Amino acid sequence: MMKERIRIDFSNLLSDAVGEEGLDLADWERGRPRAERILWQLQKERAEGKHPFLDLPYRRPDEVLRVAEGLRGKFDPLVILGIGGSSLGAQAIMEALFHPFFRFQRKAGDGGPEVLILDNVDPGSVSYALKRANRGDPLILAISKSGTTVETLSQLLAFLDLLRKRWPKGWKERVVVITDPERGPLRRFAEKEGIKALPVPPGVGGRFSVMTAVGLLPAALVGVDVEELLLGAVEMDRAMKEEGWNPSLFSAFAHYYLHVQKGKGNWVTLPYSDSLRGISAWRRQLIGESLGKKRDLAPTPLTAVGTTDQHSQLQLWLDGPRDKVIAFLTIEAHPEVSIPDVGWEDEDVSYLQGKDFASLLEAERKATEFALTKGGCPNYTIFLKELTASVLGGLFYLWEVEVALCGSFYGVNPFDQPAVEEGKKVTKGLMGKGDMRGKREEWESWWKGRRSWRWPG
């Protein structure tokens, strides 16, 4: 059962633990009627067919499985072209389920392919990926919900050039696109060339798309059991309905209350596992794009990792501004790695000998939790029994529901991102897109009219 694999201890958010900086349960009881109306409204809209991301776990991924089965093991490297929600979910899954150094080695398990995730247009990264692909036997997976993402289209052009030169007759077999089911340049390209194309379901935003082909196909291509991931989300959905109170609802209320009433608008995701760096980055985008809609009231999502950032951020959290809520994320089942007894007879060393690294990691987490709580910094801990596809599915779903509910507390639409569009339009204008010429002219006027104050002059 999911309740045995994901547990949440909210105790250190309460005023009983952190004093006046925390949430008094009496305030939760006063706010609970409004909170439950917000949850009821979300459930009502779901029943009306709105918010389709909530029902994604219940859809069989037959097309994903069919395409993956036909391609798995035939290509190396797998090159994923996508940015933001088009890549963060897949990257989080692979980092969690393969090994902590995946982000550096890019190897999907012992016998899996190299995986290159291009989530930027940095020429250095693009050049490296092109060289690796040219030396290997690549499969290119281009992902863009709209099909108009500048970064993804430009990357795809570079790889199409490579593929057409090396495989003039067979290049189409090496490209798969995931995009809008009906429109956009990626969809038109796939239909014209007869290239495999999978849809992003209508009404599902990029940052909520990890349980569509966007996240599932990359994972399935490297051997992840994506049905298990979806079942984990289903279990979480059901578990949240069975309890007397919904953990996503309480968490959403607590975060909002601590922000509005206590000034704690910086939300830190702090996993005590290198394998969970990716899912922290995924949550950062989920919060930032969903809730960053009001200039005078919007949370700022931050990421850190324990124990690493105890040595870079803990001083700030304890003695700096009291504006943070810390979410610990910890795994209960670690590989067994001992700290050997080598006979080092020194009291500053000998106490470590004969222990193990899992115990040390957990001791560091407990010590940090204690110091933050003692210092009046609200925090809570999510315990993951183990890192499996099922647990990841449950965690993705838990956080998606939490952010959807937060949107109602903040009075914003958590499913759009209107401010992002301005930068996209200006970029297209600067790159010469005809219908964005006015944006280019607007940028040139701004650039020429601003006061220059530079070093060297």
Report on this model:
The protein is an alpha/beta fold and 457 residues long. It folds into 2 domains: 2-45 and 229-410, 3-Layer(aba) Sandwich (Rossmann fold); 55-224, 3-Layer(aba) Sandwich (Rossmann fold), CATH 3.40.50.10490. It is built from 18 helices and 10 strands. The protein has helices at residues 2-5, 15-18, 25-47, 62-71, 88-97, 102-105, 123-135, 150-166, 185-193, 213-221, 226-242, 247-262, 277-291, 314-319, 357-374, 389-410, 420-430, 437-449, and strands spanning 6-9, 78-81, 115-118, 139-143, 175-179, 196-199, 266-271, 300-303, 324-331, 379-384. The strands form 2 sheets. A 5-stranded mixed beta sheet has the order 1-10-9-7-8, sandwiched between helices. Strands 3-2-4-5-6 form a 5-stranded parallel beta sheet, sandwiched between helices. It starts with a helix and ends in an 8-residue tail after the last helix. The model has no long low-confidence stretch (mean pLDDT 95).
Summarize the structure.
The chain is α/β, with parallel strands linked by helices.
Question: What does the radius of gyration come to?
Answer: 24 Å
Q: How many discrete structural domains? A: 2
The span between the termini is: 64 Å
CA-based shape:
globular
Helix content: 40-55%
CATH class of the largest domain: Alpha Beta
Structural class: alpha/beta
CATH fold-level assignment of the largest domain: Rossmann fold
